[in-house]
Write a structure and sequence with these properties.
This protein is of the alpha/beta class. The protein is about 30% helix and about 30% strand. About 45% of the residues are buried.
């Protein structure tokens, strides 16, 4: 088979097991159909591995296996290793919702697989992975035996790959909603109306943290989605937990999550509102504010505007939080790294004129592993701040 040949000196990233090949690193591209898996060679002719290629994408190639391992074998082994890691991480009687495959974090670019009790949800970002879908489905369904397999590939980035956004049932019975258990706490996950694959599994460890720090506090859960942080705060003994999100359907499910957990209706108020405006309300009297916004920087060009957004909400939270208070603040934009995020928080503290100290630093939950060879897999960072 004709191989992709890299330019001299441009093979270092792949030799170091980074998954991406940009067009500028390629010397020869053979005839191929977009999405096909091709061998990748160095300028000197050494076989570096196999990747799938798409001329339409700025990341032209994404490696699925390295060295002389056949690509199907590499993919099968990556799936097996991903599953083996998760079986050791969770007791399913306590936590039955987990990420099984975290794209490059598990050596499988373009693929997210989340497992909610017995429902498997796939999210496919690239044409190459789209073509590998039958193989992936076969491997995953054979291993975890799901009641249903759904696809939630509603990613605008698919357009760059020549794909449309899509959602649907791939196998099994139709499921609109499922009850999951996380750290012993039940939550509803709605596939019909949910964002991403349904639930923000990457915040599992931070939810535990909120439970630990909430006792006696008046909590404001900003960007609450379906209220999971609010539920955790109340389980941890918070005096109150209010939730605010711009999505009415997320807030409706947040109310249902309170009911599911037997939390009294007066334990928190639900607001369907824009957080940027809501935080300007002078009447807020919270002493624990959680800020978990969506990714403000989806691409590199957005970083400056994103930092302005992060600074605004953090400044407003510092101005509003009662002293001595806590602010748990996050950024899930991988283009805004931890150092930059800390600088933004510093600027926000300075402008608010409050004394702010970092008590703890946080990252994505452990079923979202960061591939040491592919640092772009690190995206979520959070600081627990003490404001007095
Ligand atoms: N903390 C949540 C996840 C938050 S995801 C959890 O653990 O489940 C980000 C949320 O922000 C989404 O629910 C989205 O609807 C909401 N959102 C986005 N922009 C917003 C805005 N300007 N004001 C309020 N909510 C917003």
């Amino acid at each position: 088979m004709n191989a992709v040949v890299l330019k001299p000196g441009r093979d270092k990233a792949v030799l170091n097991r980074h998954h991406w090949i940009f067009s500028g690193a390629i010397r020869d591209l053979p005839e191929f159909e977009n999405g096909a898996v091709l061998p990748v060679r160095s300028a000197g002719g050494d076989l570096l591995g196999h990747g799938y290629f798409n001329r339409k994408s700025s990341i032209t190639g994404r490696m699925v296996s390295f060295g002389d391992e056949p690509p199907e074998e590499g993919i099968r082994r990556s799936v097996e290793r991903a599953l083996a890691l998760r079986t050791r991480l969770f007791d399913p009687t306590v936590t039955n919702a987990r990420r099984l495959i975290n794209a490059e974090g598990d050596g499988l670019p373009g693929l997210i697989a989340d497992f909610y009790d017995d429902v498997l949800v796939l999210q496919i970002a690239t044409l190459g992975m789209e073509k590998l879908k039958p193989l992936i489905l076969d491997l995953l369904a054979g291993a975890v035996r799901p009641r249903a397999v759904l696809e939630k590939s509603d990613l605008p980035a698919r357009r760059e790959e020549g794909l449309v956004e899509t959602e649907g049932l791939l196998a099994g019975e139709r499921v609109d909603k499922v009850r999951i258990l996380e750290e012993g706490i039940p939550y509803w996950v709605s596939f019909a109306q949910g964002q991403k694959t349904g639930f923000f599994l990457d915040q599992r460890e931070s939810r535990k943290l909120v439970r630990d720090f909430a006792a006696g506090r008046r909590v404001l859960n900003a960007f609450s989605y379906t209220g999971a942080f609010s539920v955790c705060a109340l389980k941890g003994g918070a005096a109150r937990a209010d939730s605010v999100d711009s999505s009415a359907s997320a807030i409706a499910l947040a109310r249902e999550n309170f009911e599911l957990n037997g939390l009294p209706a007066d334990s928190g108020v639900f607001f369907t509102a824009d957080v940027f405006e809501f935080l300007r309300e002078p009447a807020l009297d919270h002493d624990f504010i959680i800020l978990d916004p969506p990714a403000f920087a989806k691409k590199k060009a957005d970083v400056v505007a994103a930092c302005r957004g992060y600074k605004d909400i953090n400044r407003l939270a510092f101005l509003r939080v009662r002293s001595p208070g806590l602010v748990l603040t996050f950024s899930c934009s991988h283009h805004v790294d931890e150092g930059l995020f800390q600088q933004v928080v510093f600027q926000a503290a300075l402008e608010a004129g409050r004394r702010v100290r970092i008590l703890q630093k946080h990252r994505q939950a452990c079923d979202h592993p960061i591939n040491i060879y592919h640092p772009e897999t690190s995206y979520l960072k959070g600081f627990l701040l003490y404001v007095d």
